[in-house]
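Explain this protein:
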Amino acid sequence: MPDTSPSPSVDQPQPLDAIIIGAGFSGLYQLHCLRDRLGLSVQVLEMAEGVGGTWYWNRYPGARCDSESQSYQYYFSKDLLENWAWSERFPQQPEIVEYMNFVADRLDLKRNVRFGIRVTSAHYDEAANQWTVETDAGDRYTAQFLITGVGCLSSANVPDIPGLDSFAGNWYHTGLFPHEGVDFSEKRVGLVGTGSTGIQSTPEIAKTAKHLTVFQRTANYSIPAHNTMLTDEFKRYCKEHHADIREVMHTSPNGHPFRIQERLALDSSEEERAVLYEKAWAKGGLEFRSVFEDLLVNKAANDTAADFIRSKIRSIVKNPDTAALLSNIDHPFATKRPPVDDHYFEAYNRDNVTLVDVRAAPIQHITPTGIVTEDGEYDLDIIVFATGFDAMTGTLLKLDIHGRDGLPLKEAWSAGPRTYLGLQVAGFPNLFTITGPGSPSVLCNMPVAIEQHVEWITDCIAHMHAQGLDKVEAKVEAADQWVLDVNAAAEATLLPQAGHSWYLGANVPGKPRVFMPYAGGMASYRKICDDVAERGYEGFTFSGQTVSAS
């Protein structure tokens, strides 16, 4: 895709009102709001060669959204809603990228995006009250506002396994998959990881590989997608009921187009629970979590769902030893986002698929010909790492962001991320983080969380312009209290009991163990943010003064 934006010189930075990093769901909507609604000069810097954000990079076999398609889109524009129709219940990666291009072209956004540009640093100059952003192309930009839309799951986590460089075959990470794809036919493939991407990849790779060996450390729950092509009737319903669908998404804790049932698991008999779980399993998708409202707050209630899914795994997988490994799940159901799969457990009934328990026999090293565990070596031609991401903070910290007095973001977050509402960081004026740590983000249907953040940021900047203010920054005490609030919201649930979850950063060696997303629900969070704004942006300082409510 040609880059049509002007390239600034190093000596004479191009002055802007705002710089946005990332051209995914967040960056594109933020560009539209600032440029087309507020009339600001805006530049988006995007490392990829096209729009799409995380969906540009995640092209692994089976890559598919786990939010239902009618909810995985922008709802701010009636025109966009009426002129786009999804083809499947759970859209695949190519269709999501197609949708992102549809939006970008419809709103003429690409002319303000520079593609193929990686940000190498972003430093705040207090005297000038501006951010200076430098790129790997040697360009320099300056702007009053810096807004990150880099995504929560965009920094690939490649495990540091001794000997990887010696491997004679090819290896890949699911988050950085070759755009031309990979031919697995007649290859011995090793897949490391059984999180969401591993669960989606396994049945697809197994279809063509000579043999697939899956290395499992942590067994995982998964719900069948029961994906299907959308009927014309359903497409018509979605177009005629945009407002109703939006209302459900905006008033539900997780931003999905369904409501959590107001009933308790333990108030139902075992027979009644079985019927309800079977019905939800047959429907498929994340809605399974909504059968009872106490699954994430009551361990005994959660056990009823967990036991049901374990029994399903044992009934699907024919080899009892493999079934036992797959169902030996050590955390409560939905304390890690449960994947939605397309015949994942059924894949282990194939003759060319083997499951290896690397919790019992950990991976020792990699040789030129394969992976060595404590139990021996597995000969491989290709290795695929489905080992997830340095979630929520990884990409932000790689940007080399420095705030007031040169304070590095890495230092400010040395004990874990500290934000106010997930929107701002104390000591970093005029820096906004869309779906940053401390916001619902990954515990929510992402487009819903993104639209709320972008609109809040846009309203805040509009307020500043109306009031003649030039600087906004989260107060230290407000951020400190919000960290306590985030922890309290998590502790009110079972979520922290998945101690090895990437919600806590546990998948990245050396990363501080801090529960990062806000678990109080998207609807509650929206009200908190609205109340903060209505009270004169309580907890923020503007141009050195706290703005009081009018």
